[in-house]
Design a protein that fits this description.
With about 100 residues, the chain is mostly loops. It is about 15% helix and about 10% strand. The protein has a four-stranded parallel sheet, covered by helices on one side. Helix 2 links the parallel strand 2 and strand 3. The radius of gyration is 13 Å and the shape is globular.
Length: about 100
């Protein structure tokens, strides 16, 4: 049975499994749409969260990933969790602090 959680619920997954990256106009919207439709994946309603490429999120020594994870309210540990932000095709140093994540 698939569980759904509202925005005020506790986050029910660890970290994201994948990021859809690529240049603008390279098919990231289509890939995001297909992945979002799959029953075993979970993606936020909003495409292009721009979390990892926003320097304001990484000014402090401790990054607030909880804020980022709240953008995925219906995800749980049984799903593959990800998002699409095309600009992330550029090597973003902030990704190195997040841990292992697959870039598609």
């Amino acid at each position: 049975m698939q569980k759904f959680f509202n925005k005020s619920a506790a986050i029910k997954f660890g970290k994201l499994d994948f990021l859809v990256t690529g240049a603008q106009k390279s098919g990231t919207s289509a890939l995001s749409k297909y992945l979002k439709a799959h029953p075993n994946t979970c993606m936020p309603d909003k495409k292009e969260l721009h979390f990892f490429d926003n320097d304001k999120n990484f000014i402090k020594n401790k990054v607030d990933y909880e804020f980022y994870h709240k953008q995925f309210p219906e995800c749980d540990e049984s799903m593959r969790v990800g998002e699409a932000t095309p600009i992330l095709c550029i090597g973003i140093k902030a990704l190195s602090g997040y841990g292992n994540i697959t870039r598609i």
